[in-house]
Amino acid sequence: MYSGAITVKDVWEDWKLYERLVARLMANQLSTEFCVTPNASILGAITGIKRQIDVLIETRHDTDNTRRIIVDAKRRKRKIDVNDVEAFRGMMEDVAATHGYLVCPHGHTPAAEKRAQTAVSIRLLPLGRLEDFDPRTWPRCTRPKCKNGRVFWDGYPEVSLALVAPDGTPTRLAFVHSVGKCDRCKAFHVSCATCRQILCVPEGGYDDIGHQCSCRLPWFWLTSVEEDERGAQSAELHLVMGTGEIRTATRRSISTA
């Protein structure tokens, strides 16, 4: 558990803790095909305004928003009702989400379940799960302008390197990384399991030559902004190998408004 001194800036509101817990559980349960962004922001296609998304789930390896999933974590003392479902379905339509999860601690009404149908899943997450959950144990965001952000890890890409021993025996070494985003400023971060360095990989321009950790092995990290067929933009973190191979390690939709 966290052992540092607690300051006023470190105090987390209950609703924020609940959102981060939902994001953590979602990331733990999903396949590596998907990436998770807590506290995301998407421009509504219908309303033209930024919509705050508690948890955003998207495909990891390509700019494909046709399978976007959003999660609304409602930490309330009452049950989810039909009005909550109606409002959530409206948000889903605005951000082009194909499915949504309403997560709550106290259940839902029969009318809410009927209105949810197949597009929305309602899940129960008791508040007792918060007792052993402390996001202050997450690494601090290393972006200089970010205050109090914490890094949310959502992927663990592995790089294999072919080597030849002095006796001529071929071998392979595996290097594991953690990739994720700041839960406030959304900056991409990479943690190397070998040298233990945590890199902040900013969204660079055309002159960005990439970022390496202290290992200085033959790969580096680079970001780009991509568009899907409808013009929706995503910030993407890429692993660039010395062989020229490029892998998309994680991504997040961005709002341009």
Automatic annotation (TrEMBL):
<dbReference type="InterPro" id="IPR007560">
    <property type="entry name" value="Restrct_endonuc_IV_Mrr"/>
</dbReference>
<dbReference type="GO" id="GO:0004519">
    <property type="term" value="F:endonuclease activity"/>
</dbReference>
<dbReference type="Pfam" id="PF04471">
    <property type="entry name" value="Mrr_cat"/>
</dbReference>
<dbReference type="InterPro" id="IPR011335">
    <property type="entry name" value="Restrct_endonuc-II-like"/>
</dbReference>
<dbReference type="GO" id="GO:0009307">
    <property type="term" value="P:DNA restriction-modification system"/>
</dbReference>
<dbReference type="GO" id="GO:0003677">
    <property type="term" value="F:DNA binding"/>
</dbReference>
<feature type="domain" description="Restriction endonuclease type IV Mrr">
    <location>
        <begin position="15"/>
        <end position="130"/>
    </location>
</feature>
<protein>
    <recommendedName>
        <fullName>Restriction endonuclease type IV Mrr domain-containing protein</fullName>
    </recommendedName>
</protein>
